[in-house]
């Protein structure tokens, strides 16, 4: 995906400041890293994928509803004109937008489950694929439905149009598959896959995990 290689600590810093919505600190970190590695902010953001969980900056922006930060990150992740010419339509959307973490969940899955309607709209408009299923076999739409986020469900139903009828409904996740994830900011995610950073980036936003 990205040609830039970051250390685990550098990745943790980027993800930590993202999930805490610490915009100035994130900008400073990105500036330092792009100078250190002689690359672009896009390269740094694409390389900031947690080695164990597979979570990205988009997962945390989306789950927490940091819409302004999400838009900014997506803008920085846009392919360059040169990449667009080289790769055609595949380069029209950010390469990271449909990235699946270790549980198969995309940023859209996280936004949908947490009821972050504005984030869901931004992701879909930016090219997020709403038909990707996570490891539990669930679409983002279903994650929103089982979390009773009716506004998100309605939006995704309308956005999906006729494809919704073709896809059908997935079954409910079993209790043993579900894990409650809660961050320091109060965001909670019940998951067969909506996992979060495993605590390697310590601080006020450290994730606590427990059984559902």
From TrEMBL:
Cross-referenced InterPro entries: Ankyrin_rpt, Ankyrin_rpt-contain_sf
Pfam family for this entry, one: Ank_2
Region (Disordered): 166-212
A cellular-component GO term for this protein: nucleus
Superkingdom of the source species: Eukaryota
The keyword Cytoplasm belongs to this UniProt entry's keyword annotation: no
Compositionally biased tracts (Gly residues): 201-212
Annotated GO biological process: regulation of gene expression
UniProt cross-references to SUPFAM superfamilies, sorted A to Z: Ankyrin repeat
Sorted UniProt keywords: ANK repeat, Repeat
ANK repeats (start-end): 103-135
PANTHER family in the record: ANKYRIN REPEAT FAMILY A, CHROMOSOME UNDETERMINED SCAFFOLD_25, WHOLE GENOME SHOTGUN SEQUENCE
Protein name from the UniProt record: Ankyrin repeat-containing protein YAR1
Provenance organism: Meristemomyces frigidus
């Amino acid at each position: 995906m990205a040609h830039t290689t970051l250390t685990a600590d550098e990745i943790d810093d980027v993800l930590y400041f993202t999930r805490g919505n610490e915009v100035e600190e994130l900008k400073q970190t990105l500036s330092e890293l792009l100078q250190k590695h002689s690359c672009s902010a896009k390269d740094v953001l694409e390389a900031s994928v947690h080695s164990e969980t597979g979570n990205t900056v988009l997962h945390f922006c989306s789950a927490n509803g940091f819409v302004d930060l999400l838009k900014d990150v997506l803008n920085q992740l846009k392919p360059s004109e040169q990449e667009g010419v080289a790769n055609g339509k595949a380069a029209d959307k950010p390469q990271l937008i449909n990235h699946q973490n270790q549980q198969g969940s995309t940023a859209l899955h996280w936004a949908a489950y947490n009821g972050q309607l504005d984030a869901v709209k931004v992701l879909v408009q930016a090219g997020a694929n709403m038909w990707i299923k996570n490891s539990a076999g669930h679409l983002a739409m279903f994650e929103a439905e089982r979390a009773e986020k009716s506004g998100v469900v309605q939006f995704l139903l309308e956005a999906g149009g006729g494809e919704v009828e073709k896809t059908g409904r997935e079954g409910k996740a079993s209790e043993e598959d579900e894990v409650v994830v809660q961050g320091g900011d109060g965001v909670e995610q019940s998951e067969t896959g909506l996992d979060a950073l495993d605590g390697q980036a310590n601080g006020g936003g450290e994730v606590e995990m427990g059984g559902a």
